[in-house]
Amino acid sequence: MAGKFGRAGCRISVLALAVTCLAAGVAPFEAAWGMSGQFLPLSSVGAFDPGVFWETLIGAVVACSFLLAVVLSAYSAMRRLARSKLRRDAFISSALNNLSQGVMMTDAQDRVVFCNDRFYEIYGLSRADVTSKMTGREWIELGRRRGQISVTAEELKRLAFRPEGFILELPDGKSVVQKFFRMPNGGGIGLHEDCTVQRKLSQQLASTKQFLESVLDNVPVCVAAKSIEDGSYIFANSAYENFWQFSRDSVVGKRASELFDEGSAAKIEAADRGALGSGDGLFHNEFEVERCGEKRLVASTRIVARNANGQPEFLLILFEDVTERQQLSRELENTKKFLELVVDNVPVSLIVERVSDGKYLLANRSAEVILNRRREEVTGLTAADIFNPREARLIIARDEAAIKKRGLLAEEHPISTKDGLRLFLTRRVTLLDDGGDPQYLIKTYEDVTDRRQTESRMAHMAYHDGLTDLPNRAAFLQALAQMIEACEGSGEEFAVLSVDLDGLKEINDVFGHATGDKVLIEVANRIQVVARGGVVARLSGDEFGLIIDGKQPEAGIALARQLAEAMGREFQIDGRSVRTGVTTGIAVFPHNGQDAASLLANAGAALFRAKAKSRGTISVYEPEMDQQIRDRRVLHQDLSGAIRNGELSLYFQPQAISGQTVDSSEIIGFEALVRWLHPVRGFVPPVNFIPLAEESGLIVEMGEWILREACKEAASWPKPLQIAVNLSPAQFMHGDLVGLVHSILLETGLAPGRLELEITEGVLIEDFDRGLALLRRLKALGVRVSMDDFGSGYSSLSYLQAFPFDKIKIDRDFVLNLGRNPQSAAIVRAVIGLGHGLDMSIVAEGVETQEQLSFLADQGCDAVQGYFIGKPLPITQYSGLIGRDGKVLEPVRKTG
After folding, report:
1. By percentage, how much of the chain surpasses pLDDT 70?
2. Is omega for the bond preceding 590 within 30 degrees of 0, making it cis?
3. Residue by residue, what is the 3-state secondary structure of 732-761?
4. Most-buried pick from 371, 501, 540, 846 (CB within 10 A)?
5. pLDDT tens, position by position, 587-611
């Protein structure tokens, strides 16, 4: 304040001095003017007046004083202006020097007029480096020499005059933003700002942003963000693009209603509102959207992001397509339910135990039998909690053994259940975790009580006959092998008897199989009594085997006679008297075989020879029998290849209407008969190979071939004559006979009414109900069915009553005895009358003489067949009869 007042006093004193001088100069003139009335005008100029002189002198002094005061006032004002300018310059300089930016000013001639301290600091310059005469261009050249500026002055000015300026990279790592501005006076201002930190932060921010965008683009979850203010999208990642199948550029800046269909947009906006309305700014939900015409289920998470003031700023959206996951989840749930259902219904008890604490985690329904309680009650319990102490100790010990083994441990042991003591097969399996340590123990308990009992019975049945409880063939062979081992090298002998029960087939036919089974049981008892504790076995249906020691073959023959005597006595079965007999074959060790199979086979060969002689006889094995058996086996093997090798052929024997003469007997059909031309043996008689085919089962394959060839041949005949084919009982028992006949008829084109199938009563004897059903199905195809060899069996009348046969064939044995045996004639008459009474045609087989033909014609027999009518010959020999060549007819008929 003193300074201010001092400066003010100075200004007042100068002003006062000026005023005083001015007043002193004016005063004499006022006095003179005041006394003008008292003085007279001067008479001449040159006259000296002292008063005037002093007045003039004083006026001059006053004027000089005034001028001096004016000068002093002007000087003081100038000093004040200078001080004010200095103060202003100091203030401006201080202000500019404290800026965070560097400032350089140039005048209109581009001379540097000012640089602040920050400018020198940024570029590492001293004030001596930038002189007052230096121009802006020279400063740029100085920077280029120092390596601070890499561009020319023109380029730098051009770049720095841009609104964003130019970033200069200094060698010390600094980054400086240079901006130049033109001044109205032609000069310029350059602003230089150190942006090193900002640039690093900007680079880090850009890198972080790029990193985050890269991360988000590689996240498999769809990510988007939208502004809360207007609901427009501000970001979307690649997964989002892939899901919606449009680019993120087309998403950013748009709202959901502009991008999606109405239904999807409404669900998306509802989810947004749910997130904004949630207390914690987090919202999860699932909803269905439409994408490219298909419905997709998405699982969405929405997060509200807030600014520094806590106000919602934008909404972060994360979602993924869970359509397949939901389907898999449903499938998994269904699979889980299915597996639970399976586990609950497996026929074994299942328990899962955790190894760490021994607690039961799972038990199925079947396990309730073991646990003696509901399965829900055992979850979380241990064996010690469930079972009594003794049982618990045993179970725990077995569990520990299985865990220690780390594999399968199986054992059988009894367990007490509500049904009593039962035998269980327990299997324990240890499951390991990823580290190889035991984690779970799976235990299954299978009740094998009934199985073991069944196996015991089956083991007994494997070596015993189910009907008689005698040892079977396998047991007999074992006993025979043991007997051979015991007698080998000792010189001892023993005999093997193969005993065949006679008449069992007839008993079954007449009285039924139930009676036959009872007979077999009684026969087994009688054989055991006669054998007196020796080895007795049932080898097959009606064949028994025995082993007898002693001097042979005498001991064996004696035992066979005792058996024949014992079987000769009647059996009383259900109030009926039944008779039977036995035929026996004997083989002796060691003369007739050194092993069990050979001995039994040779005893069978002796039995075959005994049956060939006569029922009820006894035969001891002889070496030539073996040759016969071998021949039979060779013939069987040859027969098995006869069909494939084309060795079989068909012969045809005519069937004619009964006339008094051959010429008057019109041919109505043929019977197809198989013949075998062996490449070495020549023609093999049917009586030799047909029984062999029946026994071996080859008759099924052979019968199919015969039927197909016969139908094929008959279908080619110009005349629609009948063709008769024999069917074996074995064909009824194996395969689909009806389907076979039907397919052959379709294949060959033969009319069903032309085919006649001949059967024997054996078809119905084996299985009456099945055989009868098959015959009815065959009849339904339209074919004719006839009964062959009528009168040779036991139950023919009952069969005729059960099934309406088209034709009955009288057995040749009755026809051959016509004229020699009155009984045969009576039987033939009776059969003809019976057949006509049942509306069935009658055919007589074996007609070989005129006398037989005349008798049959007189008795009204419908048709005849035999050598007198025509022999079995290839069909080419009967070409005239079938309509191919009439010239062949007479020679062929005459040969008959």
Report:
1. 90
2. yes
3. HHCCCHHHHHHHHHHHHCCCHHHEEEEECC
4. 501
5. 999 888 888 888 888 898 888 888 8
